[in-house]
Amino acid sequence: MGKDKKKTAKKAKAESVINPDMPADSTVTEAHKAAEAGQKPAKKMSNKAYLKELEKLEAELVHLQTWVVRKGLKVVIAFEGRDAAGKGGTIKAITARVSPRVFKVIALAAPTDREKTQMYAQRYLNYMPAAGEVVIFDRSWYNRAGVERVMGFASEEQIQNFLTMVPMFEKLVTGKANNIILLKYWLEVDMDEQTRRLEARVTDPRKQWKLSPMDLKSYSRWYDYSSARDEMFRATDTDFAPWFVANSNDKKRVRLNIIRHILDSIPYDVPKDPEITLPKRQKKPSDYVEPKLPLNYVPEVY
User: By three-state DSSP, how is residue 55 classified?
Assistant: First the structure.
């Protein structure tokens, strides 16, 4: 009986953060029910259905942006997952209709020789948000627990020190002194879908830039990555900074699911639409004449 009450209270708490003004949708509701029951969607989402849902969520992201700026919130969203799990596409879906001055994407290159001698978290601290900002990490400090571990770029001592340090670091980040909202997402793709996506990168010139020598080396080490992921979860999945795992075999669904989850995780109010009227344009001055300048014009090929 006590357990049932706890479950009910926990469910009510989760539901309370959902924005009541977000448009209800039966498709999304059914998807939530299926996810809770452990069922996989019957088929991949159509582009038409995806764009319809995405448009609604994009409007809500703009509302969230307004709220973040108005209240001076500080948000960090970290994306992790295997190669070709869909992190980049999900981040693009989140940021497509919001301001890059508020939603800032950080995708760091390999550390320099100087950075390798610094405290490990130091290079990430420079990118932590100020008030009114959302910082999205396309791979984060968890590189050490994943690619650096599997590919041998960090010693076992460094890895264990990292796994011990991270909960303390994230406790500091999310604590009252800094009050940062931290969301950590792991995108989970299965073997077959990862293979299909990586093969597409080989043949599609639009995607070839995504295929690095590191991707090819890491592709064969599926279970090494699985073991590294599992230990990372055990060490760093905490009450104050939990991991959220998203099935990313269907790119469209995972983008919608994660955007929805972000909106559900940060309570916000929907502002009233401002009354905006364009001012009248000035009249053309009597002394203004269109100049005939020797400019270069872009050919109108299309």
Answer: helix
Element (H, E) at 165: helix 156-174
Domain positions in the chain: 62-265
Q: Class of the 62-265 domain?
A: alpha beta
Contact 264, 18 (CB under 8 A): yes
Which among 81, 236, 77, 271 has a CA at the least distance from the CA of 165? 236
Tokens 């100049």 belong to 291
Contact 241, 182 (CB under 8 A): yes
Distances (CA, A) of 107 to 116, 141, 162: 17, 11, 20
Q: What is the mean pLDDT of each run of 10 residues along the chain (302 residues)?
A: 48 39 42 50 85 98 97 98 96 98 96 94 96 98 97 96 98 96 98 95 92 88 97 98 97 98 97 90 94 95 96
Kindly report the pTM of this predicted structure: 0.84
For residue 137, give the 3-state DSSP assignment.
Answer: strand
